[in-house]
Amino acid sequence: MNERSFETLLYGITANVIAKIMELNGWSENQAMERFLQSKVYAYLEREETKVWHYSALMLAQLFNEERAGHLLLPEV
Predict the structure, then answer these.
(1) What are the sequence ranges of the domains in the chain?
(2) 38: closest CA among 21, 54, 26, 50?
(3) pTM of full prediction above 0.85
(4) In which band, very low, low, confident or very high, does the pLDDT at 56 lie, cut at 50, 70 and 90?
(5) At residue 28, what are phi and psi to the nearest 5 degrees?
(6) Are 44 and 71 in contact (CB under 8 A)?
(7) Distances (CA, A) of 76 to 52, 57, 72
(8) CA angle 75-76-77, nearest 5°?
């Protein structure tokens, strides 16, 4: 996938994950965005070679919450 296509995909996935995080945690958009963009899950997501972008928005939001709880384990793609 070329860089531009991946950036477009990443933007859409990130928006959906933030919406799920807001729903699951009752946070505002700013809170969810700020916390997600600083997470390890997002760091994996923004690297195409990790293939984390294959996960659903719900799974990524759940992984984010697992990371916050101190036990992040990425499932195999």
Answers:
(1) 3-68
(2) 21
(3) yes
(4) very high
(5) -75, 165
(6) no
(7) 9, 16, 13
(8) 115
Asked whether 11 and 58 are in contact (CB, 8 A), the reply is no
pLDDT of residue 77: 62
Q: Which two tokens stand for residue 16?
A: 């959906």
Average pLDDT rounded to a whole number, residues 56-63: 97
Give the C-alpha distances (Å, rounded to integers) separating 27 from 1, 19, 46, 55, 77: 33, 10, 22, 22, 29
The label of the residue with tokens 């946070």 reads 27
Query: What confidence score (pLDDT) does residue 24 get?
Result: 97
What integer is the mean pLDDT of 8-36? 97
Residue 13 CB contacts under 8 Å (≥ 6 apart), including other chains: 45, 53, 57, 60
